[in-house]
Design a protein that fits this description.
Layout (H helix, E strand, L loop, with lengths): L2 H8 L50 H12 L10 H11 L12 E7 L9 E6 L4 H16 L3 H7 L7 E5 L37 E5 H4 L12 H14 L2 H17 L12 H12 L15 H7 L1 H10 L9 H4 L3 H4 L49 H6 L9 H4 L1 H4 L18 H6 L19 H4 L8
Parallel strand pairs: 2-3, 3-4
Antiparallel strand pairs: 1-2
Helix pairs in contact: 7-9, 10-11
The chain binds zinc ion.
The site of zinc ion has 7 residues, from helix 7 and helix 9.
Organism: Tetradesmus obliquus (Green alga)
Keywords: Signal
Protein name: ShKT domain-containing protein
Length: 465
Amino acid sequence: MTVARLVRSLLLLCCFSAGEPTTANTAASSSGTAKSSSIRQPTWGTGRQNRHADIRPRHTTATAQRLLADYYAGKLRPALPAAVGKVIREASAQQYAWAKPEWGRYRRRAVVLADPAGAGEFAIWAWDIVPEAAVQQALRVLSGMVGELAPDIRQRLVSGVQPSKVALFKRPEQVWTDIPEHSIWKGTEFGANDWLSGVGGTRAVPVSSSDTRNVMEAADDPYREESVLVHEFGHHIHNLVLPDCVARAADVAHAHAVASGSYSPGRYMVSSVFEHMANGAAAWFQGTCRSDVNDGIISRPRLLARDPTLFSLMQYIFTPSVARMRYRSLCPACSTKWSPEAAVPLLEPGPPAPLIKLPLDQCISAASSWRPVPRNAPDCSDMKSECRARAIAGQCDTHPDMLTLCQLSCGVCRQVSSSPGCLDRNASCFVAASVQGRCQSDAAGMGPQGMGCLLSCGNCTAARI
Ligand SMILES: [Zn+2]
């Protein structure tokens, strides 16, 4: 590995968003504006990479990695820790010393429906200066992610002592520390990184943020080959929403990923459990088309192919819906400006990390009946030898026959219940049953009275299995 490549590989993803754009997007990436900063500019190598030096974060890898790890581990302290309560009081009074009158008010702009019972709230906050279109786009993305959280985990999102938020800020008028809850970092080494496109929420400050340029995939956004919002909300779920036993499973999955040697050395995705989870969520929701920070793990089939243990954890946290939220289809410019999946290389520096069983059994309660079994389902298999290659190329989303012929590689196998014979016979069962309500019809694929989808239709007892 060359020095330039090593530097590139170590540069950080969105919370410290850095790194190079994907090759296919190079031409579109060169129109950014220079930002003033006193932080030393990194070495960018030669040739194409230098074209982006003007819009890339000025930061050293070691410093950024340290700050990032300390921030998410809760070790980074604001200059005035007591200011957290002060900021919250000021929020209600709308008194911020740094705020400019033209920003308007910092206020709740939209509510994400995270709790049908209405017992809690998860909201998007922003100043008036943030365009409504950005709020609505963020609402679409977050609703898609929240809607796929397993019900018991989704409930935790709205039941925290402090309400979780996602806050948007508008570049270039604002920086991330202009989010009131994050203003506690002003005047610190961490807060000096005003190029950040967003940060994930932590237990200390349960607020994730994103630059609206990224939300709207604006032409001058340096990180438009990835969704900062999807990545940061991945952090949010990990840091704030997962039960402790699931978080411990995340630690196991990360340690296993590192020990397996299946990632390129120093790859940002495995630099910490936090980035492992956030990049895993980005892959799960197709929230990136980069390969430099994640070895090209940009989709569910690729995650399954390279890191099936993390896949199984994502499968535990999110429902296994075939019709999942796909950021690539949802964002304003991805369908035309992002590289096709087949054009994003999947780097395979070693054999895939073998699947290990995570200690999730202890997490399963009455409210959580989900048991992820990504590879061992008796009726889950690939029927064609080319399934893996086609899945990695993104064909699970574009070729309907893939979900029938290549269930294993596409990662759409349903869970296996405790009853060996209680299975779904078709990959579409979950969506057909839970979204379309087709269990009582005799529609194709469901069988008489949904008997082809015993598990999704809840007919295992009726089948006396
Ligand atoms: Zn991150």
